[in-house]
Every structure is written in structure tokens, then in C-alpha cells.
Amino acid sequence: MKLSRLVSLILLLFVIALTLTVLQANNIGGLPEALPKIARWLALAALAVYAAQRRSLTFWIVVSMFIGAEFGHDYPTAAQNMKVLSDVFLRLVKTIIAPLVFATLVVGIAGHADLKQVGKMGLKALIYFEVVTTFALFIGLAAINLTKAGVGISQAGAEGEPEKLQAVEQTTSDIILHIFPENIAKSVSEGQVLQVVVFAIIFAIGLAMVHGKHRRPMLEFAESLSEVMFKFTNVVMFFAPIGVGGALAYTVGKMGFSPLVNAFKLLLTLYGALAAFLLLVLVPVALIARIPLKRFIQAIAEPVSIAFATTSSEAALPRAMEAMESIGVPRRVVAFVMPTGYSFNLDGTTLYLSLAAVFVAQAAGIELSLGQQLVMVFTLMLTSKGVAGVPRASLVILLATVASFNLPSWPVFIILGIDALMDMARTAVNVIGNCLATAVVARWEGEFVDNYVAPPIDDLAEADSSIAQHAH
């Protein structure tokens, strides 16, 4: 069957499935209970056939998201057991992060032995992170004050799992100490990316200072390790559609499509604010930095879809690093900016925290002045830097902060009900923001290569040297 005919068939099947589902939901026509379900599965089967002919991993991930959501809706009990598939995928990906970040940073810093240039690049990256996250903060505040999603909530509607959230009190000293590793093996096992970054930077500086004969073997080892981990990533990513489908099945099976009205209003507010942030901040930044938007969007489609479905920035990190190299960003820039951004450039999380904090106050019926809102949100920005490895980190920090501002905690548990859906969007925006930050810093450094043609997948080992030749 020709692809054009297959696409037409898929669209027709989806229209029929949607029509039958709506008719059944409104008790119109007395349809057999199983008919809409059969129609939906036929449409998904046709979509899977189309995906098999396209042979695109990104498209397979999208198809698996639809199949997972449908499975979660039709078989919620069985779907909640599908979480093991996403957990397996996340575990495999997390084994990549530390060695990949370590190896690429060591090669990027010690391989050039220009420590002043690395310091300048770090300063530029931090300035960019601060400016963009501040924009995210203000857009979040504007959105929640416009929609007033938390106004009118009855405390009786609060449904949550208090035992799963424990307030974590952190002093300034704790936040600073959290940046520095005390045991690199412990940092790796706990997934503390920022601590691995700090260790790798100091290690690379030390390596750059030793004699050439001692530096060369370690550099060759780091280069080999980074190439092996990129190939490792390619193998693991074949499991991505299964992991993504399992994640969506579990989410839909557990909470369905009908969260609380006010919580759903908050969800729409978040998605609208994130869309505004993308259009009003990130797109203009990309245009100003002369980043080729079409190539950029094509490159990040896969890592962003992985981040959206798994709600894990870590799951998307290896693919995001490869994507940025594929459009002409040197590996040393990617290796430094992107892992650092995972702690300092969480655009989606910053915007979410500003929304959620004011939502709690609105739900409690407490009027906060703009000054009070800013103080609370800036506090959240600072404290969130130190808990990247804590499960439900954003909610944990939110709970601790609202308590310190004498706000009640029960609205946080309403947010908990839809946190999975909110986490998808904010994680995807975090990945988009970090990918763009990498490209912008490369342009700022004068090392972004326009019209760069990525090598075939088997020639990735030569990509960085090719970029360097183009850049100089």
C-alpha cells in the first residue's frame, strides 16, 4: 500500500474512532460498548504499520505514546504494572549519564588546555541561564495571576498522598555543599549530575596541568569512553518506544483523563505559560543568535519526546548531546553547557514553581503582594538547585517553601494529583531550553558551525574534529 493511501486510511480510522467515542460518551445511538474501543485500536494498528514503513525512532516513540495512553485507558489495572518498562529504560539511561558527562568534559577541557577560554565560556553560560530563567519566572507569575486557577478551591477537594512528600529544610550551607562531591562513586550512584560535573572539571584542570606524556593516555581513554557511551546510547534508545509506552500506560491507568477542575485549570495555565515562554523568549533568542530553527527543531524532536513521555531530563540527555553536535555545536561546548544547565537552567521547572507557589496561596485564600510573590519564587529558585536527586523534587521543595512562608500544605496535594501531566511539559521545556542554551553559547563563543553536515551514525567519532575544522 502506498504511503499516501495509508495516511488517508489512518486519518479516516481516527475520525471514525473519535466519532464513536464521543457518541458513546454522550449515550447517543446505543452503540455496543466494545465498538469505539475496537475502532481506536484499529486506528493505532494502522499507525503502527505506517511507523514500521517509515523506520523512524522518533515516530515510533510518538506512536508508542498513543498506544500506551490507549492501553492505560482501556486496561487501567494492567497498565499500572507497565511502569516496570519505563523504569528499566530509565535505569539503562542513567548508567550512561555519569561516564558520558565525565568523559566529554575531560576531553573538552583538558584536550584544549585553554583554561581561560573554558572559564569565559562558563561565565557566559551562567549569565545566559540567569537571564532566561528570570524571564520564565515572570511569565509564570503573570499567567497564574491572570487565570487565578487556585481561587475558589474547597479544602474538601484536596486529595493527595501526604506520606509520599516530606518537607526538606535546606540552609544556604546545605545548598552550597550539595554542589561538591564527597565521594565520586556515591555521586554517580545517586545520579548527582552537578557533582559529577564539578569533579570532571577539577579533574580536567588537573589533567591539563600535567606533562604531555602523562596527559595523553588519559585523554585517549576519555575519548574512547565518550565514543563507547554514545554507541551505548544508540543501543539503549532502541528500547525507548517500549519504555515511553509503559510510562504513558502507567500514568493514564493510574489517574485517567479527569483530574480535579481547578487542578486541570492549573494544568492548562502551565501549558499556556510554557507555550508563551517558548514563543516570546526562546524563539526570539534563537533568532537573535542566528540558530537555524528548522534544523534545531528536527534535531531536538527525539530527545524532547523522550523527556515529555518519561518526565526525565536525564533520559533525554545523551540524545540531546548528540543532537546538538549534529547541527554544528562542538562537543566541548555541549559537554560543558548542557550538564551544567541541568542544574542552573531549568526553564520549565522555574516557570512551574512560580505558578505552583502562587496557586497554593490562591487556594488558601491568601492575598500575596507582587513583592511577596517575588520573594517566595526567588527562594524556590535558589532551593531547587540542590535537590536534583530527590524524588518528586519540585513538589518536595514547594512543600518546604510554602511551610516557611506560613502557607498551608493541603493545596500542594491537589497539585500532586496532576503532577505527572505537569512534569511532562516542564521537563520537555527544560530539555528545549538546555539544547538552545548550548547552541547560543557556541554562537557566542564563535564556534557554532553553520551549514554543518552531520556524519553518518557510524562516523560520530569523527564529528567533533570535523566541527573543529569548520570552526577554525
From TrEMBL:
<dbReference type="Pfam" id="PF00375">
    <property type="entry name" value="SDF"/>
</dbReference>
<keyword id="KW-0813">Transport</keyword>
<keyword id="KW-0769">Symport</keyword>
<feature type="transmembrane region" description="Helical">
    <location>
        <begin position="351"/>
        <end position="375"/>
    </location>
</feature>
<dbReference type="GO" id="GO:0015293">
    <property type="term" value="F:symporter activity"/>
</dbReference>
<feature type="transmembrane region" description="Helical">
    <location>
        <begin position="59"/>
        <end position="76"/>
    </location>
</feature>
<feature type="transmembrane region" description="Helical">
    <location>
        <begin position="35"/>
        <end position="52"/>
    </location>
</feature>
<feature type="transmembrane region" description="Helical">
    <location>
        <begin position="232"/>
        <end position="250"/>
    </location>
</feature>
<feature type="transmembrane region" description="Helical">
    <location>
        <begin position="270"/>
        <end position="289"/>
    </location>
</feature>
<dbReference type="GO" id="GO:0006835">
    <property type="term" value="P:dicarboxylic acid transport"/>
</dbReference>
<keyword id="KW-1003">Cell membrane</keyword>
<dbReference type="InterPro" id="IPR036458">
    <property type="entry name" value="Na:dicarbo_symporter_sf"/>
</dbReference>
<dbReference type="InterPro" id="IPR001991">
    <property type="entry name" value="Na-dicarboxylate_symporter"/>
</dbReference>
<feature type="transmembrane region" description="Helical">
    <location>
        <begin position="193"/>
        <end position="211"/>
    </location>
</feature>
<feature type="transmembrane region" description="Helical">
    <location>
        <begin position="395"/>
        <end position="418"/>
    </location>
</feature>
<keyword id="KW-0812">Transmembrane</keyword>
<keyword id="KW-1133">Transmembrane helix</keyword>
<feature type="transmembrane region" description="Helical">
    <location>
        <begin position="125"/>
        <end position="144"/>
    </location>
</feature>
<protein>
    <submittedName>
        <fullName>Cation:dicarboxylase symporter family transporter</fullName>
    </submittedName>
</protein>
<keyword id="KW-0472">Membrane</keyword>
<feature type="transmembrane region" description="Helical">
    <location>
        <begin position="96"/>
        <end position="113"/>
    </location>
</feature>
<dbReference type="GO" id="GO:0005886">
    <property type="term" value="C:plasma membrane"/>
</dbReference>
<dbReference type="InterPro" id="IPR018107">
    <property type="entry name" value="Na-dicarboxylate_symporter_CS"/>
</dbReference>
